[in-house]
Amino acid sequence: MDFYNLLYHGYTGEYQLVSSLYRNGLDAVRPPADMGVDVVSLNLKAQLENPQAAPETFFFQVKTASTPINDASMSNGLRALTTVQFKLKESEVDLLGKSSDRALVCYVYSNDNDALADATEAPFLYFWLDGTRIENIRRAGAFFQQPGEAKLTLSCQLRKPASEAGHWYAVIVDKHGRQVEEGYLGTVDGDNEHTLASDGANHYSIKGYLDFARRMRGNQQPGEAFGACQGGCAAGPGPENALGDLWRADVEASFGRPSASAERKGPDDDSPFR
Asked: pTM surpassing 0.85?
């Protein structure tokens, strides 16, 4: 991809995020300098309507990738599976990992043009990772350096369950293609404990991030939060976030409860579900 295509490809995701923020009643600005974030949100509307409203700011780094979805390979137990990669500077990962008021938003666009809408204009799928999760998956080996590259690579598997009714979903993997701890992000149609990510948030919606980040700040009732910390602290993995539990939730959400033999296997065994 040449320089201009790469530049415009990046702008696509940034303005997609800007649009989503406006849909959620927030203003969005793009800092003129490269400060490690691409978009900053502000609650100007709320402050103008109510002078007593506290300022609210969130920071976003945006990455985009494209993949030929129709060419996604078949995998045992899955209808399709494809891997996409995002490149980040180490300084960007450092900055994002400091707090949950920062998030990485990853947009995946399809190279296929036989969709109902022009596949190059609408994202096929997107997800977000807040600073706490970024720090946790980093410790688990999610960000790695490829030979000859200065930037870090974040690798993500997009999976299509065997069920006709199943939706695509995202899983963060290490350089060997194995799911990392807290790498399971739930499913797009997640509506119960088996299809949610470990933090209980909707990782496929900007509103899902805003709700989660506000809860982390203590501005809302925490409700059923998993391992949430107040004040945007960078918490380590909680006992409820064990990789084995996430693996089982991943399998059950997509393919039903595994057999007794599958139950005896763990995520580090020779399993296709990773």
From this structure: no
